[in-house]
Design goal:
247 residues; alpha+beta; five-stranded antiparallel sheet; four-stranded antiparallel sheet
């Protein structure tokens, strides 16, 4: 697991993918920081304002603000550090992301995962977050319904036909609506949720890797191990050795 930097602002990329620990930590720093859940929630309190922050929201921490936080170590978060915040961005700690922001977040996550940084993409993100939120559109209930179904049926085949029917949309309409709302394809979202479940089971249970593969929708343990290696850079066994929480 990785603790956030607590010293000074790094001269490298302002973005990083991080995991936190389940016991509460607390600190402040002289630069601004944004914490954005990707795979699941974080409990975070900024200057006495607490929130169970879920994907689809961002936490903005202004310079000098004390914050307490705790999260499942299996979950990933996009973190940005910045010496400045545009406009009135630092006046409220919690922001619900609109469709355009979710799209850009998906781009940022891919870039950071590939260790790539384009000059100016951090400023674009900050300015995008600073735009007025009056036009923000919540995720439609039909897409939320699909998200909940995916979350509770990760071990099962999740076809576009079935998910589109749950959303009461044709398959083409559904795929377009899903990408528009969440900034990623249906298959990418399902793969992301399955890998998050796999990390959680590897870290917190002693289940055999074959059983974990099955619970994550993979009937072939080899295919699961190959996908896990692609996503994390480690085999399931090695990831468990480095991140396991069992005694």
């Amino acid at each position: 697991m990785t603790r956030p930097l607590a010293a000074s602002l790094s001269s490298a990329s302002p973005f990083s993918l991080r995991r936190y620990q389940s016991d509460i930590s607390s600190h402040s720093h002289d630069f601004a920081q944004l914490v954005i859940p990707l795979d699941g929630p974080i409990e975070i309190d900024v200057q006495g304002r607490g929130r169970h922050l879920t994907p689809g929201f961002a936490c903005v921490i202004a310079p000098g603000e004390r914050h307490d936080y705790a999260a499942d170590p299996a979950l990933s978060f996009l973190v940005q550090e910045s010496p400045w915040l545009p406009g009135r961005l630092g006046e409220r700690p919690f922001i619900e992301l609109d469709a355009a922001q979710r799209h850009y977040l998906a781009f940022l996550r891919q870039m950071v995962a590939e260790d790539r940084h384009v000059a100016g993409m951090d400023q674009i993100w900050l300015n995008l977050l600073a735009e007025p939120q009056s036009t923000a559109v919540p995720i439609p209930p039909r897409i939320v319904r699909v998200q909940r179904h995916i979350e509770t049926h990760l071990a099962e085949p999740l076809t576009n036909a079935r998910l589109a029917a749950l959303a009461c949309l044709g398959q083409s309409q559904f795929k377009h609506a899903f990408r528009q709302q969440l900034g990623m394809s249906v298959s990418h979202y399902i793969r992301q949720r399955r890998m998050a479940l796999a990390r959680n089971l590897l870290a917190h249970t002693s289940l055999p890797i074959g059983e974990i593969a099955y619970r994550c929708g993979y009937r072939d343990q080899g295919a699961f191990a190959e996908r896990f290696l692609t996503e994390t850079g480690l085999t399931p066994s090695l990831w468990r050795q480095q991140n396991g929480q069992l005694p």
